[in-house]
Amino acid sequence: MRWVSALPPRRGEDRRSWLSGAPPPRWVRVLPPVLLVGICAATLISDEPLEIGFLLGAIPPLAVLSYGPLATALLGGVVIALLHIPALQLDRPGDADLLTIVFVAVLSVFVSFVRSRRDAQLDLERTVAEAAQRALAPPLPDRVGAVRCTGLYRAAQRGTLVGGDFFDVRDGPFGVRVVTGDVQGHGLSAVSTVASLLGAFREAVLDQPDLASVARRLDRRLLVDSADARHAELFATAALLEFSADAREVRVVVCGNPPPLLLRGARVTEVEVAPWTPLGLGLSDAGAIEACAVSLRPGDRLFLASDGVVEARDAGGAFYPLADRLAVLADADGGDPALLPGRVWDDLVRLCPDVEDDVTMLVLTPSPHAMA
Question: Which phi and psi (to 5°) does residue 5 adopt?
């Protein structure tokens, strides 16, 4: 599957600010040497002495933001050396001034050392989080059985790579099955529930004969987890799909999740399916679940989105018009399904810049080879 995930961010995007652990911007890194060169050039060009030598004292602290201890020490040494060059006439500092600058330079080296150690630890923790995310929801191939897949995931909590949304596509003895959903809450607090549901789904794909039984298995899993949870009202919304062997039909069960959208030519329609209650409420009677069967044609695509997309609001409070926007965006760039989630994400953050929930999108396309 052409996976556009939270790791690494798409197109070099890092949702953390540089004040929250992301690498500093280029201008922060070039500021110390530019300031150093600018001060020296200004004093050499001017016919009169310039009282700007105090600016040199700012260079070591600025270096701390983006340089390691060795580079910070080097810049501090250059600053002290420049103060002793008569041609520059940098205020001719006295002993107290020099001692102050030396102290600031040494302190900056120490702070840079501490920052470098902290950044190394944060990088290690982020690497571990990436490994955990890949273990929890590993990338899928371009095709699962007779279905081509592509998806996108964005965690709402800045600085995290995981959250409360999830999806998976698995092939099994009863056909290709798909799950996408949203557990209660988001961020790190929802990760254990996501892991539990995905594990239950992957087992159910192998041994449950119908889609209603898969939903019942997930519901029971949440009931068991709720018994030991701090909040007994643990629940999750989900949409489950099951493709026939030739991908000419798909069966759909919706448990509190937004229903799939069917893209057929230039039309976008919502799949009509009887909604079921969210998972985890104890309604485990599989006979009460109605699966909707939808016939598929060559070129059809199914688009599934989480609440983070359909409930996003613009500055005026209006919901993001997913179906209307999808009809426009689906035909861009030749209608390539692999590019559709990224285009919808760009359009979403343009119209609704303050997206506060986890965002999941999944595009499922019956394989042309399978339908030939």
Answer: -115, -175
Q: What percent of the chain clears pLDDT 90, i.e. is strictly above it?
A: 34
CA distances from 318 to 111, 152, 222, 245, 307 (A): 47, 23, 33, 41, 14
- What does the CA dihedral 180, 281, 358, 331 come to, rounded to 10 degrees? 40
The single residue listed with the structure tokens 């279905």 is 147
Quick one: average pLDDT of 156-179? 80
Say which DSSP state 170 is in.
E
User: What residues have CB less than 8 Å from 74, skipping those under 6 apart?
Assistant: none
Burial of 181-218, coded b for 16+ CB within 10 Å and e otherwise, reads bbbbbbbeebbebbbbbbebbeebbeebeebbebbbbb
| HEC profile of 230-299 | CCCCCCEEEEEEEECCCCCEEEEEEEECCCCEEEECCEEEECCCCCECCECCCCCCHHHCCCEEEECCCC
* Residue 349 DSSP class: H
- 3-class secondary-structure state, position 152: strand
If you count DSSP H runs as helices and E runs as strands, how many of each does the chain have, helices first? 9, 12
Alpha-carbon span 247 to 144, nearest angstrom? 11
Tell me which residue of 247, 244, 360, 361 sits closest to 299, measured CA to CA: 247
Residue 75 identity: L
DSSP code, position 228: T
Considering the entire predicted model, what is its pTM? 0.70
Rounded CA gap, 222 and 233, in Å?
10
The residue ranking higher by pLDDT, 287 or 49, is 49
Per-residue pLDDT tens over the stretch 248-260: 999 999 998 999 9
Identify the weakest region by mean pLDDT among 14-23, 133-142, 324-333.
14-23
Question: E strands along 285-342, which residues?
Answer: 292-295, 301-305
CA distance 277 to 61: 57
pLDDT band at 7 (very low <50, low <70, confident <90, very high): very low
Query: Rounded CA gap, 129 and 109, in Å?
Result: 30
Residue 36 and residue 60 in contact, taking contact as beta carbons nearer than 8 Å: no
Phi and psi dihedrals of 311, rounded to 5?
-105, 5
Q: Which of 186, 181, 184 is nearest to 201 (CA)?
A: 181
222-239: pLDDT as tens digits: 888 877 665 556 788 999
